[in-house]
Model the fold of this input.
Amino acid sequence: MEPGLSLPDVQTAEQLLMEAAEMNPGAWVEHSRHVALAARNIAEVHPNLDPTRAYTLGLLHDIGRRTGPNRDRHLLDGHDFLTELGYTDAARIAVTHSFVIPDMDTLQGDWDGTPQEWQRLREVVARAQQTDEDRLIQLCDMLGLADGFCTIEERLVDIALRYTFNARTPDKWRAKLQLKADFDRECGVNIYLLLPGLVERLLA
Ligand SMILES: [Fe+2]
Done:
């Protein structure tokens, strides 16, 4: 695979993130950096993942926030922005990071785009062939807040308080907790131990 075609190098990803942070400053920027660090650290011990690709995909997963403040429309905006640049893997993950279950009705809260955009997002979700990289960013999206690393449970509450929840939320929570258990097994370690400062904070 030609790596330059499916995602940018780290320096370019950093520039895209900084540009987006100027357009729409917010907690999402530091969240993205923590997701990237978690992804790199987990990829370093995972048998099938590349740490540099993981870091880059983490930096870019929420790049659709550049058009915000926005809600779930950031998924489609990130996808369109990265597709335009030719970064097809990063573009797919800008959407799939929110679909640990690939159903539109697992989105929490009101849709902030047009009905046509909702249909288009649905088509992107249906078409996406998810890989271990998609799974990794789904996991790591749950491990980073703006001010540091967190447990899955802490992040589930953080999201529910901002987006509310619906009838599918328990299924989504089960799937996310299962994802953590799967990565623990694949990595041969409790992945919380790979996130600097997390265990110390929990025990303090
Ligand atoms: Fe995120």
Remarks:
- The pocket of fe (ii) ion is lined by residues 31, 35, 61-62, 141 (CB under 6 Å).
- The chain has a mean pLDDT of 96.
- The beta strands are 144-145, 148-149.
- The longest strand covers residues 144-145.
